[in-house]
Amino acid sequence: MFIMSEDSQRTQGRDAQSSNIMAGKAVAESVRTTLGPRGMDKMLVDSGGDVVITNDGATILNEMDIEHPAAQMIVEVSDSQEEEVGDGTTTAAVLAGNLLGEAEDLIEQDVHATTIVEGYHEASEIALEAIAEQVNEADVDDEILRQVAESCMTGKGTGGLTAESLAETVVDAIRHVDTDAGVARDNVTVHTQIGASSNATELVPGIIVDEEPAHDGMPSEVEDASIAILDVELGVRTGDVDAEYAIDSIDQLNAAIDAEEGELEGYAETVAESGADVVFTTEDVNDRVANALANEGVLVFEGLGDSDARQVASATGARRVGDLDDLEESDFGSADRIHTETYGDDDLAFVEGGAAAETVTVFVRGGTEHIVDELERAIGDALDVVATALESGEVVPGAGATEIAIADKIRQEAAGIEGRKQLAVTAFADAVDIIPRTLAANTGRDPIDVLVDLRAAHESEGRAGLITSGDEVTIDDPFEHGVVDPADVKREAVESATEAATMIARIDDVIAAE
Predict the structure, then answer these.
(1) Is residue 445 situated within a structural domain?
(2) Whose CA, among 112, 117, 257, 386, lies 20 to 30 Å from 87?
(3) Is-catalytic flag, 90?
(4) Residue 295: inside a domain, yes or no?
(5) What are the boundaries of the signal sequence (predicted)?
């Protein structure tokens, strides 16, 4: 009796576990060398020849053409880490891969997968306790936030800018959107523009829209602007069906032309008389209407995408209007200043101040597309981790110090756990060691020697990390050197890596349809 299709492929038992674990380990290994301030970059080339150069774990894994379902789970770990806290994607992926490697060794020793899962979950709870013990007791002020941002961006592609100078911009942006209700992270956007040194990167108190005026005669700058947002085409109305009209005389032609002119003039008069200084519309604007509005000194931007229209509405407080006859002053938004700037072949509209000041934009400049793309990723991650640190108020030492503390506490607690589950708990601690070992390897140091030194320093000092400063690598307290991470980044990495590793380790049967 056939239960499955004859074309189905089935892998069971140790073969299935080995295949899945091997796939997960391979994916984790692909990003391991990018970890830390001395991490290397990856060049990813797709089938169309497009190139991405980055050391961002989530970007690398998403750009890779990964088909194996178990390997895809590691990618999901990285995606989850990116979505929840914005950083630590490589840490989470590498930890998940090493947990799988330790699980493979235990399975070969005839430790049941369920026992491994139970031990890993117990160890992850101990790890969370260790993270809580490492939280800095000092209040998270601007200096600590700057250290969080700088630690996040160190080693990433920041062009001619230092992580330190970018950190100031990142902290200013997050402080700008810090409200009594929490950090409005969505009110900080990043806009990239090729054509200048990365040193030209700046913080804009408002938003930037990739649009140009609808007419050359319109003003390039409007102060104390009243802003209308329309979903209306300012042109001659056309029907939804094809129709032909027979004109038998010159009088009829003139009448048709006059009617059309009157309709267009009506649009221009309605907008001008409404009191709006600046109009954004998602539809087209007829040249004659644009010319008339230019003569009235109204600045118009046409053909906005829906996302841009929503952004302008959110930033300025304007309400989108779908019928010109419904346009009222109460629908207007406001801004202190709207002006247009030209960068090479691109025109940008800057909406600054007033209601728009509730939103800020990091205006990223760079000489090439690869530079601005990597800068955008680095700044985006830094914005996320600073927002996370500010909201939680908890930071822990970076540079591998927290992982050393986690592994030490797990080994201490493992002594009190009975049965084979103790093996899994201890294996979890061994897996966590991959983070400081990788940091050491990426700085050119011997991983084993560094791990021994870190453990000894942790025992004597209570906190020890691998500090990189220029060409010098030392073991010291990361807090003393400003190397800090949000506690939530570490928690999320432990939880997501544990969840993925235990899910993969429990799979002993793979059924694939052809």
Answers:
(1) no
(2) 117
(3) yes
(4) yes
(5) none
